[in-house]
Write a structure and sequence with these properties.
It holds the Pfam family Epimerase. With 336 residues, the chain is of the alpha/beta class. It has helices spanning 14-25, 37-47, 67-71, 93-115, 154-157, 161-183, 213-222, 240-252, 270-280, 294-300, 308-314, 321-334, and strands at 5-9, 29-34, 52-56, 76-81, 121-125, 143-144, 188-193, 196-198, 234-239, 260-262, 266-269, 304-305.
């Protein structure tokens, strides 16, 4: 029996590279979509396996974006859709964030239904942004679960890029579930909903200046000086390796079909990350002390959650923050 072929959209993303690497390690055939041949060639060099190839899909928001790629690869039976805009340097929220996220998701599902009827499972990377309640909707007593949806409205999403991102994740995921409900395609849908994703890159860092948005949180703290004020940032986190593994369980494990997998390990704060760095990398003399005790304060003020249904489905123990940060920092320090 030949190995299963998996299509991974946005294959050069932070999470997607881990997914691709893991799939190759598990002997799957992988076809990844990237926006340019340069990105594709970089991946080919990093992965170094005859089981990986790429196709160029310059704009996932264009109707029929994945048609040709799927027509060319009738062997694909699983579609993992990780591609989505995640940028705050934008001028038109609706045009550059909301519409591309929604249309990108719908285009992927339409292409699969039309040109890849053999596909049995579609996995979509969503976000805690589609689950949580933020800004004016915040409720400190709320315990978030897989059943929750961000209450943000379309109008509120247009206020600023941050709200635009929150809206884009909610509306794109809703579009996916609505599509399955209305169109009743052959495939089963599963979404993966992580908060902040920390952990090392899938491959050694060649250029420190090009770090993904989540890793930049850690990178920025490494650049502080002893007198710097530590940001008061705090949120929930999960390690990228757990997120990648969940994407694969999403189609390997029949119990995951039709579910939202809410991947969150624990709360984190910038002060807490600094505490971990100072404890484990004593050679870094530039890291400020801050107020170490405030980590507990920030973490207790972070979103409360119960993702026991996801943990039960996946039967996993998620990596702790210490492991994630130590591995990230180690990799950054080893980079040229």
């Amino acid at each position: 029996m030949s190995p299963t072929a998996v299509f991974v959209s946005g294959a050069n993303g932070f999470i997607a590279q881990h997914i691709v690497k893991l799939l190759i390690d598990k002997n799957y055939i992988v076809i990844g979509s990237v926006r340019s041949p340069v990105k594709g060639d970089e991946l080919v060099a990093n992965i170094n396996s005859p089981n990986f190839s790429y196709v160029v899909v310059p704009d996932i928001g264009v109707s029929g974006a994945f048609d040709e790629a799927l027509k060319a690869h009738p062997e694909v039976t699983v579609f993992v859709h990780t591609a989505s805009p995640f940028r705050f340097d934008i001028s038109d929220i609706e045009k550059e964030l909301l519409t591309p996220a929604i249309e990108g998701t719908k285009n992927a599902l339409q292409s699969v239904q039309k040109y890849a009827p053999q596909v049995t499972n579609v996995v979509v990377t969503s976000s805690f942004a589609a689950i949580g309640a933020f800004r004016q909707y915040e409720d400190p007593s709320k315990i978030f679960t897989e059943a929750d949806w961000n209450p943000i409205t379309w109008e509120a999403s247009l206020d600023n890029a941050g709200d635009g991102y929150l809206g884009s994740k909610k509306f794109a995921e809703q579009a996916a579930w609505d599509y399955v409900k209305t169109e009743k395609p052959n495939f089963k849908l599963t979404t993966v909903n992580p908060p902040y994703v920390f952990g090392p890159q899938a491959f050694p860092i060649k250029n420190k200046k090009e770090s993904n948005t989540s890793s930049e949180v850690v990178n920025a703290l490494l650049k502080l000086s002893p007198s710097s004020k530590i940001p008061e940032t705090h949120h929930l986190f999960v390690d990228v390796r757990d997120v990648a593994a969940a994407h694969i369980s999403a189609f390997e494990n029949p119990e995951a079909a039709g579910k939202r997998l809410f991947l969150a390990s624990a709360p984190w704060s910038s002060q807490g990350i600094v505490n971990i760095i100072r404890k484990n990398f004593t050679e870094l003399k530039n890291i400020p002390v801050g107020e170490p005790w405030k980590d507990n304060l920030y973490r207790s003020a972070t979103y409360k959650f119960n993702n026991s249904k996801t943990i039960e489905t996946l039967k996993v123990e998620l990596l702790p923050l210490d492991t994630s940060i130590i591995d990230s920092v180690q990799q950054i320090l080893e980079a040229k």
